């Protein structure tokens, strides 16, 4: 039994590893590919990311409800894996021809397809593995660190692959999808154990009760949901928008752009391995300070990182700002999951995750990817980053004021049980 439990842990870890191998390869090198291979300017590149976000806006509400209805069944995850399998052929044989027909049309179609796998699909992957690992009594942060390890591996090998052949990273994604599909197929989760980690008997019974329309509507009546959405736009949205064009910004400080791309891949590799190390300790930290405080600290780190990238532009300083993401990302990811399961009905964890995190994030990306792309063209990266930093600060402050801490809900729940 112990060996089976350990094997299941590695199965969860492997699923995170190969999914986020794909994620890291694409998001680290897609900006380079759009600029160098597809020859798109920043505004059209921004449109690709906006299309990814818009598609996710359509998918997330549907994905969330469907996944909560499916519970521990794998069908929706399997659909995402199927889309991932065809990334290599799509980019190699379809994306460039579509862009040649019409740049805007190609950007929209390409972004929409990638969103099935990434911006939209990630919610399915995260929600399913979090729920399954929680059912198996694993700490989410400890399983999720495999995603960070994948990011480090992708950044290290991706730089070499991209310089040799810019299409190779997308074929590597298809190969990773094959392994991910095998791991998903062999995974077995004991449905009878689902909810055992919930300490209160009433919560265990609640976990087994079917989800109703009233349960879902209660989420929207909770002020903390809306504060959480605002916080996610300030942190998760702007994290991704900042990273969309930062590789090109970093490479611009080198005389040889290819050298800049290679150096950036090395820095990104170090960052994500540091992130994996910090991920081990993050669950303990968040349990001590609370998930809401963890999100606020993550937002503060992002503010410093973006503003620093605008004001202190020596290459070694830019590297430091990038490495700060190793602190920010674990704080954000672990805090999000602990806040959702600590504040909202656990049966609706996928719905809240996909609406409160992914949907809100994609709303922000839809708007800010294009806006920042235009700003970069109009006033340059440095001035654009200063504007972005203060947008982050405004959203984090507003979200923090509206959200209640999970301790507030724990106290109310205990008072209700006592009564």
Automatic annotation (TrEMBL):
Membrane-spanning residues: 12-34, 46-63, 75-98, 104-129, 141-163, 169-187, 225-242, 262-286, 293-313, 319-340, 352-379, 385-403
Keyword Flavoprotein in record: no
Record's keyword terms, sorted: Cell inner membrane, Cell membrane, Membrane, Transmembrane, Transmembrane helix, Transport
Location(s), subcellular: Cell inner membrane
Superkingdom field: Bacteria
Membrane topology, as annotated: Multi-pass membrane protein
Name of protein: Oligosaccharide MFS transporter
């Amino acid at each position: 039994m112990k060996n089976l439990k350990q094997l299941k842990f590695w199965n969860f870890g492997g699923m995170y590893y190969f999914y986020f191998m794909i994620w890291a390869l694409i998001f680290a090198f897609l900006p380079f590919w759009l600029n160098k291979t597809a020859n798109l300017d920043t505004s059209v590149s921004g449109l690709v990311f906006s299309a990814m976000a818009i598609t996710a806006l359509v998918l997330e509400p549907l994905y969330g409800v469907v996944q909560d209805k499916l519970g521990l069944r794998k069908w929706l995850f399997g659909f995402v894996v199927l889309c991932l399998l065809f990334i290599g052929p799509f980019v190699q044989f379809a994306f460039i021809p579509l862009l040649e027909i019409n740049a805007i049309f190609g950007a929209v179609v390409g972004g929409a397809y990638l969103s099935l796998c990434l911006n939209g699909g990630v919610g399915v992957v995260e929600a399913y593995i979090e729920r399954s690992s929680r059912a198996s009594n694993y700490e989410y942060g400890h399983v999720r660190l495999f995603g960070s390890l994948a990011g480090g591996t992708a950044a290290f090998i991706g730089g070499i692959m991209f310089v040799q052949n810019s299409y190779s990273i997308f074929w590597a994604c298809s190969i990773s999808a094959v392994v991910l599909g095998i791991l998903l197929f062999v995974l077995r989760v004991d449905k009878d154990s689902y909810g055992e980690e919930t300490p209160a008997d009433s919560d265990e019974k609640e976990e087994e009760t079917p989800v109703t329309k009233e349960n879902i509507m209660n989420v929207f009546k909770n002020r903390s949901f809306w504060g959480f959405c605002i916080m996610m736009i300030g942190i998760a949205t702007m994290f991704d928008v900042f990273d969309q064009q930062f590789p090109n910004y970093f490479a611009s400080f080198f005389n040889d752009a290819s050298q800049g791309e290679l150096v950036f891949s090395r820095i990104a590799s170090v960052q994500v391995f540091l992130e994996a190390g910090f991920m081990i300790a993050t669950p303990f930290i968040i349990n001590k300070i609370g998930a809401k405080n963890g999100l606020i600290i993550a937002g503060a780190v992002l503010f410093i990182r973006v503003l620093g990238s605008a004001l202190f532009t020596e290459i070694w300083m830019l590297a430091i700002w990038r490495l700060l993401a190793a602190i920010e990302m674990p704080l954000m990811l672990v805090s999000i999951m602990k806040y959702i399961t600590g504040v909202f009905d656990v049966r609706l964890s996928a719905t809240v995750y996909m609406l409160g995190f992914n949907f809100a994030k994609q709303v922000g990306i839809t708007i800010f990817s294009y806006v920042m792309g235009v700003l970069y063209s109009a006033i340059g990266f440095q001035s654009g980053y200063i504007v972005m930093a203060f947008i982050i600060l405004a959203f984090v402050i507003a979200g923090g004021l509206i959200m209640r801490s999970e301790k507030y809900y724990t106290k109310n729940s205990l008072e209700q049980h006592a009564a």
